[in-house]
Design a protein that fits this description.
Bound molecules: flavin-adenine dinucleotide
CATH architecture of the largest domain: 3-Layer(bba) Sandwich
CATH class of the largest domain: Alpha Beta
CATH superfamily of the largest domain: FAD/NAD(P)-binding domain
Structural class: alpha/beta
Number of domains: 3
Largest sheet: 5 strands, parallel
Helix content: 25-40%
CATH topology of the largest domain: FAD/NAD(P)-binding domain
Radius of gyration: 23 Å
Length: 471
């Protein structure tokens, strides 16, 4: 019988006062009973509006019907036909803006918890399946994938399944891209990403870490000297933006990327960690997106009082609603309608060797009010006269967005790049350079995991066509 409850089954979570002291996953996942009960809320609509909201077109009602019958592995197989990272997407996809925003149940109540069901099904499969990927006969063609984020991993996986010899080149010492260095453990356990990478290796994909393409080797060298017939660029958008205000070079000012990398990749939160991250007393995170929420919640777990400084209001915060709610529950303070104008530091002119010299001591801000909508459609923040004030603190994290790193462009002649630094590529990932394809954040600028995966998939198909037609 259909479940006509207007509300989703609640996601069990760690209590806020417990979780703000650890890095374990916040959301604990549905039980089988909760998953079946939630699946029964799906009306199995004939025209499947939810599928139109899914960038990789998972057959959502079909998998949910299997969950409702308790056929969890069948449900997994339906998802796996369209998505190679369901345990990741079930956790971090902005479903409220995608599939769930189209759900008919959302008209008079809450939409079906599609993301929560996807996560349940993927976790069930991972816990119960011992399947090893079937070895695929090699077709003798070599493809290089640059970057091991969701775009690169998806492209590599699809090509390996088609028989290509794939090598992934990754600049960092661990594969996974933002999934491992950006998104914190408490939202996406790293073991889940590692399992996906182990699956790729079992398929025969080689992963060369600590290799910065453009420094260690160029794209032209990969193609002319190493025998790669095609290259996929999935290098993301890891170059942080700053405000350009005074004091941004003081000690204790981080970009969100650096701060999160130190915590996620270098485990700054563990007792045995040797990472030099500073355990701050009071932290300001400047920005209002998901990256700002992740940085704030990490700093909170390291014991600091944390302020989010955002120039618009609570309504305009671009982060996922769930992340904002979790941040509030964990005690993050939101200083909205506030803009930093200077970062203040300590200077002791009498003792140049004073270790406090050059350290952050505070942030000078100005109050804002909202005016008429600007080009983005959001109300424009305007400074309120004579409203300056100082927040005393010892760490500032800038979470103002990122753009693609220019290294690949600078070392690859004839690769066309747009005005914002993104590689110019069509929907199949075809770039201006023969045999070179690109997708994910490297093309679009900072976007989402599922869009990066979709781009990796499209490019894998295009590369397959390209190499077949060349023969
Ligand atoms: C903190 C944070 C939180 C986020 N939260 C969410 C979320 O909740 N939901 C969501 O959908 N999206 C989220 N995003 C966005 C999402 O993670 C990205 O859109 C997605 O990871 C882009 O995938 P990608 O494969 O294009 O690039 P990336 O994941 O950035 O991977 C690119 C990889 O390429 C490597 N690389 C770069 N240059 C080179 C080079 N020259 N040579 C070799 N390797 C190179 C990098 O080291 C990196 O590993 C978040 C992003 C951040 C930073």
């Amino acid at each position: 019988m259909a479940n006509m409850s207007l509300k989703k089954n609640e996601m069990p979570t760690q209590a806020p006062d417990v979780r703000r002291q650890n890095f374990n996953e916040v959301a604990l996942g549905y039980t089988a009973e909760q998953a079946i009960d939630e699946a029964k809320r799906c009306l199995n609509c004939k025209n499947m509006p939810c599928v139109s909201g899914c960038p990789v077109k998972i057959h959502i009602p079909e998998f949910i019907q299997e969950v409702a019958k308790g056929n969890f592995e069948e449900a997994y197989q339906i998802i796996a036909r369209a998505s190679s990272l369901p345990a990741v997407c079930g956790r971090v996809c902005p479903q409220e803006k995608q599939c769930e925003s189209k759900c008919v149940r959302g008209i008079k109540g809450e939409s079906v918890g599609i993301g929560r069901l996807e996560r349940f099904v993927a976790d069930y499969h991972n816990a119960s399946s011992t399947d090893k990927p079937e070895p695929v006969a090699k077709n003798g063609h070599k493809v290089a994938v640059i970057g091991s984020g969701p775009a690169g991993l998806t492209c590599a996986s699809d090509l390996a399944k088609k028989g290509y010899e794939v090598t992934v080149f990754e600049a960092l010492h661990l594969a996974g891209g933002v999934l491992v260095y950006g998104i914190p453990e408490f939202r996406l356990p790293k073991a889940i990403v590692q399992k996906e990478i182990d699956g790729l290796v079992a398929l025969g994909v080689k992963i060369e870490t600590n290799t910065v393409v453009g420094r260690s080797i160029s794209i032209d060298e990969l193609m002319s000297e190493e025998g790669f017939e095609a290259v996929f660029i999935g290098t993301g958008a890891g170059l942080p933006k700053f405000m350009g205000i005074k004091g941004e070079n003081l000690l204790g000012v981080y970009s969100a990327n650096e701060f999160l990398t130190r915590i996620n990749l270098m485990k700054a939160y563990r007792e045995d960690s040797t990472t030099p991250i500073q355990r701050a007393r009071r932290v300001a995170v400047v920005g209002g997106g998901n990256v700002a929420m992740d940085s704030a919640r990490c700093a909170r777990r390291l014991g600091a009082e944390v302020h989010i400084i955002y120039r618009r209001g609570m309504e305009e915060l671009p982060a996922r609603k769930e992340e904002i709610e979790h941040a509030i529950e964990e005690g993050i303070i939101f200083d909205t309608l506030t803009n930093p104008i200077e970062i203040l530091g300590y200077h002791n002119p009498d003792d140049k060797r004073d270790p406090q010299n050059g350290r952050v001591t505070g942030i000078k801000c100005i109050k804002m009010e909202l005016g008429e909508p600007d080009a983005s459609g959001r109300r424009k923040p305007i400074e309120v006269e004579n409203s300056e004030f100082v927040i005393d603190l010892d760490c500032v994290i800038m979470a103002l967005g990122t753009s693609p790193n220019p290294l690949i462009k600078d070392t690859t002649p004839s690769l066309e790049v747009g005005p914002r630094g993104g590689i110019v590529a069509n929907e199949q990932g075809v770039t201006s350079k023969d045999g070179v394809f690109a997708g994910g954040d490297a093309v679009t600028g900072s976007a989402t995991v599922i869009l990066a995966m979709g781009a990796g998939k499209a490019s894998a198909n295009a590369i397959d066509e390209y190499i077949k037609n060349k023969k």
